[in-house]
Write a structure and sequence with these properties.
mainly alpha
């Protein structure tokens, strides 16, 4: 593997971790995701984003794989952390918070590789 590929892979994982933690903070959940970013975490995070897309118009951007496989690179490319940072409490905040809470434990377990 090339050094550039390894560097990009680490950056992709960091983008996903940052997005998960930004979503936690936006939902006022006092947690930090520290688990390993793996395919199971990416799939669960995509499910979570799909769930909250029904809560707020700000999440209509949630990426769709169009039938293709979900991957770490795909998720990192599809994410827009700026959208997460601009989440407004006025927009179905209770709905979003409850969805995020539902997925926190699942993400933690997946991040442990279980």
């Amino acid at each position: 593997m090339s050094v550039d590929f390894i560097r990009k892979f680490k950056n992709d994982k960091k983008k996903i971790r940052d997005a998960i933690n930004t979503l936690y903070a936006s939902a006022e959940i006092d947690k930090t995701f520290t688990g390993e970013i793996n395919l199971k975490v990416v799939k669960l995070f995509n499910e979570l984003l799909t769930e909250i897309s029904s809560c707020s118009t700000r999440f209509k951007w949630v990426p769709n794989t169009s039938g293709g496989p979900i991957s770490i690179a795909w998720m990192a490319t599809s994410l827009s952390v700026g959208v997460l940072k601009n989440l407004s409490k006025k927009e179905s905040f209770t709905c979003i918070k409850s969805r995020v809470w539902q997925y926190t434990r699942l993400l933690e377990i997946a991040g442990l590789g279980l």
